[in-house]
Amino acid sequence: MLNNIIFSLNREENRDFRTFLLSNPNRLAKKRLQLFDLLKAKTKQTAIIDILYQTNKTPGAYNELKNSLLKQLEKFILLKNSSKNQWFEVIKLISTAEFLAYKNLQKERLKYLYRAKKICDAQNFYALSSIINIKQLKSTAAQNKYTLEQLTKQYKQDFKLLTQTNNASLVAEIAREELQLSLSNQSKTNANEIINNILKEHNLKNNNQSPQIIYEMVIVMYRTTLANGQVNKEFEQFLAEKHLELKRYGFFEQNPNAHLMYYFSWSIILIFNNNFTKLNFLLKEYSHEVKKHDLTFAHQSSFYINITYSNFIYNNQNKQAIDSINELLNKIEGKKYYTDLLYLNLAVAYYQEHDLDNAILTINKIQKTDNRFKKTLGIGTLLTKDLAECIIHHEAKNYLYVENRLSAIKRKFKNILKLNDYLYELKFIKIFAQLNNNPKVIGIESFKNEAKQFTSNKDINMIESEPINFRAFITSKMEGRDYYIVYLEMIREK
Questions:
Q1: Rounded CA gap, 398 and 390, in Å?
Q2: Is 1 helix (H, G, I), strand (E, B) or coil?
Q3: Proportion of the chain above pLDDT 90, given as a percent
Q4: Torsion of Cα atoms, 148 then 151 then 153 then 159, to 10°
Q5: Torsion region of 38: left, alpha or beta (phi above 0 gives left; psi -120 to 50 gives alpha)
Q6: Which one, 25, 268, 289, 344, has least CB within 10 Å?
Q7: Between the ranges 59-63, 136-140, 189-193, where is the mean pLDDT highest?
Q8: What is the pLDDT of residues 120-144, one digit of tens each?
Q9: So what's the pLDDT on residue 462?
Q10: How crowded is residue 220: how many other Cβ atoms within 10 Å of its Cβ?
């Protein structure tokens, strides 16, 4: 189980977990990190024991360390998700309510349960909703704002929806396993065929639950395909066909949040395939749905704007990107969870428009958001955000400020910058620091060779890379060209 969890972590999660392990540095933490790296490298058990233990080379000590590492992984996963997952938010509210019940604060307890129920209703958490209904039923009529009849009716309705949702989730997981098997065998994958076979096998072809089940299967297939990096034109076509099918069922009319999520997922696939022609058409439909529901789903509006931002940027339309983000920021002012990334993207758009004053003013708005950035987007994104700020100030000729900020960044991120996963960022900081301290260094042969080696690294995906792409930035300086033009050329190389 431990190995499977470790191999499921992506690059960003690997980085964050290593940082998490070293957050309380001691001998055991270092040994856990060593074991993590050895397991990641698929080292044999006998070799691991020889490396980790000078004495007491027994499977018992090794298994104890493995269990310890697994517990740390479980804590990390819980921490990683609790800040951005509404399910965990409901769990926290229910736990608080139970503590208040122990303190005999029934009125306060019910307030927490009402808050939890409100999230459950919005997110379709029918299992948790059923639990909350039971807890409310146990309260006295005088304390509760709902009648016994209302609570009983709600419980029955939630239980029915829970049964339907569980069926959909179960079948979706079967689809995910089938797709994963097909991808790992490197056989030609036909997502439509997988769905049709599963529906037929489970007698769900004409079942009234089939639209929900199809939607669930499509979403898990999208995530699996993306995680495996095997996005192709056929999967684009598959998403288009399933979208039409679900519309014919009337599924999206009843589930507008699901429709917005579908558009977002589809847009991501088109961006990864560099299909901006199709994305332009899709965004017209996506925009209509977002406007129809206004800010009922505020996070979905944020998703949509970040997709349109990407589309504008890749199509050399900075001004439209700036206008679209500012429009949404005016609507959702104060909802900081959704605005941090928008402000970062806006600052970069101003930078690409050579409006450095507005770029600096905008990025200053997220200066004191380190903890929120780390929780919602990961420590790696926080590092690239800080470096983007340095690039903007460098372009504004604030060289002394950048020199001091780079020194602070090296201290702030010293633990993660020791890790192999952050070698790319560390090399950039070294090259950038030289360039910032002496712009004429670009004429020195040794620096030219160092910069050329860095910019020739094409392993980093241009679509999902840092806010201001490091490779494009250094290339623009070495060639004396505009950053944004170089960036667009690099994207189109893909």
A1: 9
A2: coil
A3: 18
A4: -140
A5: alpha
A6: 25
A7: 59-63
A8: 777 767 666 767 776 766 555 445 5
A9: 46
A10: 20
384/424 Cα distance (integer angstroms): 11
461-481, pLDDT tens digit by residue?
444 568 899 999 999 999 999
Q: Which residue has the tokens 């505020």?
A: 298
**Among 221, 200, 198, which residue's Cα sits nearest to residue 269?**
221
CA–CA separation, 221 and 239 (whole Å): 10
Residue of 69, 5, 70, 4 lying closest to 31 (CA atoms):
69
Report the candidate in 341, 315, 334 with the shortest Cα–Cα distance to residue 325.
341
Pick the CATH number of 274-368 from 3.90.1150, 1.20.58, 1.10.10, 1.25.40: 1.25.40
What is the pLDDT averaged over residues 2-16? 75
Q: Backbone phi, then psi, for 342, in 5-degree steps?
A: -65, -45
Q: Mean pLDDT over residues 452-463, rounded?
A: 69
What stretches of 413-469 show up as alpha helix (H) in DSSP? 423-437, 445-455
Residues in CB range of 285: below 8 A, 6 or more apart: 263
| Predicted pLDDT of residue 5 | 78
What does the pLDDT average to over 409-413? 90
What is the gyration radius of the CA atoms in the chain, in angstroms? 26
- Helix, coil or strand: residue 57: coil
Q: pLDDT confidence of 45, banded at 50, 70, 90?
A: confident
Encode 132-176 in three state secondary structure: HHHHHHCCCCCCCCCCHHHHHHHHHHHHHHHHHHHHHHHHHHHHH
CA distance 308 to 276: 11
Model confidence at 264: pLDDT above 70: yes
Residue 252 host element (H or E): helix 251-254
Contact 103, 140 (CB under 8 A): no
Give 86-132 as a DSSP string.
Answer: HHHHHHHHHHHHHHHHHTT-HHHHHHHHHHHHHHHHHHT-HHHHHHH
Each domain of the chain, given as residue ranges in start order, spans 2-82, 86-146, 147-254, 274-368, 393-493
Long-range contacts of 482-485 (CB under 8 A, 24+ apart): 483/351, 483/352, 484/316, 484/318, 484/352
With cut-offs at 50, 70 and 90, classify the pLDDT of residue 458: low
Taking residues 243-255, report their average pLDDT: 87
Asked which of 47-51, 180-184, 380-384 is least confident by mean pLDDT, the reply is: 180-184
d(CA 53, CA 32) in angstroms, rounded, equals: 13
Q: Give, rounded to a whole angstrom, the gap between the first and last alpha carbons of the chain.
A: 36
CA distance 384 to 378: 10
Tell me which residue of 292, 354, 347 sits closest to 321, measured CA to CA: 347
Q: What is the pTM of this model?
A: 0.59
